[in-house]
Amino acid sequence: MSDLALPVHPRGATQDHPVARVLLVTTAAFFIVLFLLLPLVTVFAEALNHGVSAAVAAIIEPDALSAIRLTVIAAGIAVPLNLVFGLCASWAISKFDFRGKSFLITLIDLPFSVSPVVSGLVYVLIFGMQGWLGPYLRDHDIKIIFALPGIVLATMFVTFPFIARELIPLMTDQGRDEEEAATSLGASGWQTFRRVTLPNIKWGLLYGVLLCNARAMGEFGAVSVVSGHIRGQTNTMPLHVEVLYNDYQFVAAFAVASLLATLALVTLAVKTFLEWHYADEIAAVHKH
Amino acid sequence: MSFAGALPSTYWRTRSALPGFGLSLGFTVFYLSAVVLIPLAALIIRPWELGWSGFVEEVTAPRVLASLKLSFGAAAVGAVLNTFFGLIVAWSLVRYNFPLKRLIDALVDLPFALPTAVAGIALSSLYAPNGWLGAPLMSLGIKAAYTPLGVVIALTFIGLPFVVRTLQPVLNDLSRDHEEAAATLGASRFQTLRRVVFPALLPALITGAALAFARAVGEYGSVIFIAGNLPMRSEIAPLLIIIKLEEFDYAGAASIGVVMLGASFLMLFALNGLQSFTAARR
Predict the structure, then answer these.
(1) Are residues B164 and B39 in the same domain?
(2) Smallest Cβ distance to A108: which of B32, B110, B189?
(3) Fewer CB within 10 Å, N- or C-terminus of chain B?
(4) Which residues 207-226 on chain A approach chain B with CB closer than 8 angstroms?
(5) Do B267 and B214 meet the contact criterion of CB atoms below 8 Å apart?
(6) Structural domain count of chain B
(7) Domains along chain A?
(8) Does residue B33 sit in the same domain as residue B85?
């Protein structure tokens, strides 16, 4: 400890004191375990509280299965639509120069800074009973709020930027030379995209789809506002978890939650794998 | 075929040899408007059916004010906690080697990946009076779940990755030359950290804290289970929006929504300003 008082540091000028190092790493590890690992462990521990069979029973029960089906359908519509949007937006923004580009990028990022509840609220204000189109929809017997279309719309809103924001920096980095070469050799626009651009961005695209899908399947606040919580009909998995938990059916709630937690862990594993192995082919911001 | 010669440069775009500009930008603007801009416009217009005074009355009602105060206050406390611990986590991950480092690094993104409702029920049962952490805290006389402290815990959980992930690339790029130079010139390690390292990290630290704060203000799923949701005490603003919607008070719900939207836009502009300011200084 005596070298603390010395003005010259025998360890090397840019090294932290070993004691400081141990303290910092311990604090970091403690914080991570307390705030991240413990909640994760809790999910699985509570799910298996009454044994595996109780957890499995809660998952294959009809309302749970219908929630799983609805979650997969909603993500299955929202993610591909946002994928098409992401490809269009990043093509327009990275391959062309036009005014208002940075403003457009800001607008695309907007849903990230909107509260999930507000994301659901905006659709209720348009399509809800007392919304702009409410009377018209009621007269024509079209259900959007408290039905699948509302759930899909809310999911689309909250996952809107994911793929675009992954692809825009990646495709901007890659430039236009290869596409211009292909076009000048007579390739059509579609051929250029499919044979030149797509192979260049495939890992970045997968990365974006992965994150988009995780959020789409796990979204709670926005979907909660538009779903109406009709058990067996408009409950997605996260909403089903809420209903079960508020019913004091803790084992069932955590069993369904553990499915979602597994999805999160698989997402993290694939994401980390992509960051390690394809660092150059996903956007620069994720390089480790 | 739209080759370069066929397309004139106009005042708002320069010509390009590549096809598909009209189609891709057209779809982008259409989809953006349909999914994001028009719905947000519907939100911004709605409260004005109450008139300005009606709007002010709505958002200054004691219950609304209390919920806004809790959402913003707890988000601020969470952001401060995350700034402190996030800096330690990011520093440890970038500067040191220790066992399970890669696993911990991957785990930092958990709050991004874990559905908020799952995080909510997990935190709630952890900190409940009979939970793994709630019971020891209770014996210390601290009630965590179903109080504003529970809200802070949930918002700290949700905000952590923002600070760490904003700091990590900056720390990685931070050249050791500056620290060596400072040390050569006789600075102590503490002086080097305070005068050389910290100023370089400050913009990223502020950005990360602001991102964590912005996310936490609007957070719903991870909070409502642990909060207890007592009006005037542990009821967050997003929950009050849902309560007002269930009472078919659309204008009231929209009023709170507009205040929250306004706050997040202000944050967004401030952050953009900060980023262009630090970019200009480099």
Answers:
(1) no
(2) B32
(3) C
(4) 211, 214, 217-221, 224-225
(5) yes
(6) 2
(7) 1-47 (no CATH), 51-286 (1.10.3720.10)
(8) no
Contact check, Cβ <8 Å, B179/A114: no
On chain A, the residues whose CB falls within 8 A of the CB of B272 are 106
Token reading at B107: 């785990």
pLDDT at A48 over 60: yes
CA distances from A250 to A258, B32, B46, B230 (A): 12, 40, 39, 22
Concatenating the DSSP letter of every residue in B28-75 gives: HHHHHIIIIIHHHHHHHHGGGGGHHHHHHHHHTSHHHHHHHHHHHHHH
**Cα-Cα-Cα-Cα dihedral of B137, B142, B145, B146, to 10°?**
160
Contact B106 A111 (CB under 8 A): no
- Segments of chain B scoring below 70 in pLDDT: 1-9, 11, 281-282
Pick A125's closest partner by Cβ from B43, B108, B120.
B43
Interface confidence (ipTM) of the complex: 0.89
Give Rg (Cα) of chain A: 24
Compute the C-alpha angle A111/A113/A116, nearest 5°: 70
pLDDT at B184: 84
CB atoms within 10 A of CB A222: 30
Question: Do the chains contact at A180 and B214, CB–CB below 8 Å?
Answer: no
Q: Check CB contact of A261 with chain B, cutoff 8 Å.
A: yes
State which residue of chain B sits closest to A131, comparing Cα positions: B250
Indicate if B30 and B67 belong to the same structural domain: no
User: CA-based angle A118:A119:A120, to the nearest 5?
Assistant: 90
State residue B171's pLDDT score.
92
- Residue A281, Ramachandran bin (φ over 0: left; ψ between -120 and 50: alpha; else beta): alpha
Q: How far is A142 from chain B (nearest CA, A)?
A: 19
Looking at the structure, do residues B31 and B68 belong to the same domain, yes or no? no
What pLDDT sits at residue A26? 93
Indicate if B38 and B172 belong to the same structural domain. Answer: no
Cα-based distances in Å from A212 to A191, A228, A272? 27, 24, 15
Q: What angle do CA B204, B206, B211 make, to 5 degrees?
A: 95
pLDDT tens-digit map of A19-45 = 889 999 999 999 999 999 999 999 999
Measure the CA dihedral B48/B51/B54/B59, to 10°.
Answer: 40
Residue A259: both structure tokens together: 């499915």
Please tell me which residue of chain B has the smallest CA distance to A94: B21
List phi, psi (to 5°) of A147: -150, 175
CATH at B210: 1.10.3720.10
Its pTM stands at 0.90
Per-range mean pLDDT, top range of A137-141, A275-279, B163-167: B163-167
